[in-house]
Amino acid sequence: SIFSQTLIRGPYLQQSTAHSIIIHWQTADSCDSKVTGGDQFGTITFTVVDSAKTTEHVLKIDNLNADTKYFYNIGTLQQYFYIPQTNHYFYTHPYTGLHDHYRFWVIGDAGMGNNNQRMVRDAFMYYNAGERLNGWIWLGDNAYYSGLASEYQSNVFSNNTYENIMKNLVIWAAPGNHDYGQNPNNSIPAWLSIFDYPQNGEAGGLASGTEKYFSWDYGNRSEER
C-alpha cells in the first residue's frame, strides 16, 4: 500500500446491478475520492471522482456492461491507496430475467470476531472450491454484541475476518436484534451508515423509501430483506 495507513475500512462492494455498483471505504482523515477500473486488469475504462472531502467514501460506478468482471482501484484525486491488486474486482449482475446457475453464500449470527467465525469462513471457501459467487447474504446479528461501528470494524472489517472477501463479493445484509443494539427503537443503528442499500428500486424489486427494508433483482430471482 502507498499510504494505506489512512485507510480504515474497505474497499467493500455495495448495491450492485446489471449496470452499476457502489464502492465504499473509510479513511481516518477527510479527503477526496476516486475510483478507476476496467474490464481487463491494469486498464482504465471508467473513472469516478468526488472532490468533496469526507471520511466515508461512497462512489457509484454507472454505465457498466451486464454480467462482466471489472477490476478497480481506489484513492484520492492525487494518489492511489494501492498498487493494482488482482483481488480488487467485481461482477455486474446478469440481465434481469436471465435463467442461469446462481450461487450465493448465506451466513447468519456470524460477527463474533473469533476463530469459529474464521473456521466457518475457511470451510465454506474450501467447499466452494473457487466457484464464482453471485452475492453474499447476511441474515442478521452481523456484529456482536450491540452492532456498534467499533464491533463491525473489529469483527467483520479487520482482524483477518471478512475484509479481503468484501473487496470482490457484494454484501446484502439484513439486520438482527444485535445490529439494533437490542433496541428496536434505535433509529440510527451503525449499519445504516456502513451499508448502502436501495430505497427507490435502484436495484430492481420494490421501492421501500428506506434502507431498513430493501429488495433487489438478480437474473430471474427477486430478493427482499
Helix-strand blueprint:
Blueprint: E1 7-14, E2 21-38, E3 46-61, E4 69-75, E5 89-91, E6 104-107, H1 115-128, E7 135-138, H2 149-155, E8 171-173, H3 191-194, E9 215-218, E10 221-224
Parallel strand pairs: 6-7, 7-8
Antiparallel strand pairs: 1-2, 2-3, 2-4, 4-5, 9-10
**Regions with pLDDT < 50 over 5+ consecutive residues?**
none
Tally of contiguous helical segments: 3
The coarse overall form would be globular
Count of strand segments = 10
Structural class: mainly beta
Helix content: 10-25%
Instruction: Characterize the largest beta sheet: strand count, sense, and whether it forms a barrel.
Output: 5 strands, antiparallel
Q: How far apart are the termini?
A: 36 Å
Relative strand content: 25-35%
SSE sequence, one letter per element: EEEEEEHEHEHEE
Q: What does this entry look like structurally?
A:
It is a single chain. It is built from three helices and ten strands. It has 225 residues and is mostly beta strands. Strands 1, 2, 3, 4 and 5 form a five-stranded antiparallel sheet that branches. A three-stranded parallel sheet has the order 6-7-8, with no helix packed on it. A hairpin with a 7-residue loop joins strand 2 and strand 3. The longest helix has 14 residues, at 115-128. The protein is globular, with a radius of gyration of 17 Å. The protein starts with 6 loop residues before the first strand and ends with a strand.
Distinctive features:
3-stranded parallel β-sheet, mainly beta, globular, 11% helix
